[in-house]
Amino acid sequence: MLQKKKIAIVGGGPGGLTLARLLQLSGADVKVFERDLNRKVRVQGATLDLHEESGLKALKKAGLMDAFKAHYRPGADKMRILDNNAEIHFDDHQKKPMEEFGEEHFRPEIDRGPLRKILLESLNDGTVVWNSKFQSMQKFENGWELVFENGNTVHADIVIGADGANSKIRPFLTPIKPIYSGITMIDATIYNSEIESPKIHQLLKGGKIFAFGGEKTLIISSKEGGEMSFYTGCKKNENWLKDCGIDFKDKNQILEWFKVEYAGWSSIWQELFSSEKTTFIPRPQYYLPLDQIWETQENLTIIGDAAHVMPPFAGEGVNMAMLDALTLSESLTNPNFNDTKTAIEDYEIKMLKRASETTQLTLEQTASLHSKTALKNMLEMFNQQSID
Ligand SMILES: Cc1cc2nc3c(=O)[nH]c(=O)nc-3n(C[C@H](O)[C@H](O)[C@H](O)COP(=O)(O)OP(=O)(O)OC[C@H]3O[C@@H](n4cnc5c(N)ncnc54)[C@H](O)[C@@H]3O)c2cc1C
After folding, report:
1. Distance CA 95, CA 30 (A)
2. Among the atoms of ligand 1, which is closest to the Cα of residue 14?
3. Residue 385's pLDDT band (boundaries 50, 70, 90)?
């Protein structure tokens, strides 16, 4: 099916790169068009925990488990659940033994940078075309002519959109737009956290913190290279970002906002806003309708956040993106399918069903963690898991 076909994947995140690797293992002609200027651009954001039945399953099929084991961070999955006064109610460091691959609840953590590096190094030279911000495309013969912001144009027989939450490929498949979830997060990275945020750094102990109070969340993760990332989660209306008047480049303005928004929280948390070098990114959270569907095309589809963005409160986004890559690669290389439309339809049926179930679960979890009983809900969930 893929012989003599040029495949263009737009977006070199975990979904797009995993797909490129899996397709190349089958001998397909694949290029990834990524807007980042080059591979050295730092990949920011919270760490990712990969799940056995999705993210790790895709890595196994990609033959990259040894590389993953060399780069994941043992112990970084250890979690503490705290209240707004920084009192610890659940502590993996006290009870959780070091877990092993293959164990039911083991969800090894990896930073985004090393995950991208593993995937990039697995690809044939020249697979990723950097500095290629997709702008638009039009049908050309049996494929597509893609136009990039740098002025380049490229012809492809099959296009796969892996360009994340604000996908520019998605509208070529469906007019269905993401729906605001009611939660806006502020995502931040602190460099040299031992010096810049010593009390929280100590509390974090190289793992993760989930803190709850007043229907708000604060989730903190340790990262490699002495970094720490965190994100706040609050109920806000969709226009808050536009209307709030905060300059997100000014940490003092964000600290003032935090003091008011998280009134009643211990002042220890304010340390997170003290470093001059911290970068803050506001992220309103969206999801897609559970019953979304579109007419399958023979030479175009989408994977990952482009297909089913969702808030991160169930930790499924990257895992779903990598599992989409696995499912799509299996469909496109299935010898029982005679044409790409049947193969893409097979993938889309499986992907949309899975995305619907995962989005439902994620929305329930998002509501639970931003409710008055968030702490109790989370403790019940993890105490039950320890008993299991
Ligand atoms: C703060 C935060 C915490 C999270 N925590 C978790 C977690 O713990 N666990 C989890 O599973 N998920 C988590 N997620 C979600 C997870 O990050 C995403 O679901 C995952 O990255 C989706 O992968 P993707 O490859 O589909 O898209 P992305 O990772 O968004 O990658 C898209 C790629 O496309 C590129 N791109 C975008 N537009 C264009 C364009 N026009 N042209 C060319 N290239 C383009 C981008 O530069 C990027 O490289 C979190 C998200 C956030 C914001």
Report:
1. 46
2. 25
3. low
CB of 112 sitting under 6 A from ligand 1: no
pLDDT at 388 over 60: no
User: What CA–CA distance (Å, rounded) separates 171 from 167?
Assistant: 8
The tokens for 44 are 């920011």
Query: Measured in angstroms, how far is the CA atom of residue 94 from the centroid of ligand 1?
Result: 33
In this prediction, residues 216-222 reach a mean pLDDT of 97
Tokens of 357: 């179930």
Residue with tokens 């002042």: 267
Cα–Cα distance, 239 to 224 (Å, whole number): 35
Please name each of the domains of the chain with its CATH number.
6-42+113-177+289-367 (3.50.50.60), 179-287 (3.30.9.30)
Which residue's alpha carbon is at the smallest distance from atom 9 of ligand 1?
A: 315
pLDDT band (50, 70, 90) for residue 106: confident
Q: Is residue 111 within 6 Å of ligand 1 at its C-beta?
A: no
Distance 95 CA to ligand 1 centre (A): 32
Using DSSP, state whether 362 is helix, strand or coil.
Answer: helix
Per-residue pLDDT reduced to its tens digit, 259-287: 999 999 999 999 999 999 999 999 999 99
* Any ligand 1 atom below 6 A from CB of 134: yes
Q: Which of 35, 53, 286, 309 has most ligand 1 atoms within 8 Å of its beta carbon, as the pocket-test mutant? A: 35
Q: Is the CB of 6 under 6 A from ligand 1?
A: no
Looking at the predicted structure, is the pLDDT value of residue 78 above 90?
yes
For helices 14-25 and 317-332, the axis angle rounded to 10 degrees is: 30
Share of the chain above pLDDT 90, in %: 90
* Nearest of 300, 298, 297, 255 to residue 276 by alpha carbon: 255
Q: Are 226 and 265 in contact (CB under 8 A)?
A: no
Neighbours of 317 (CB within 10 A): 23
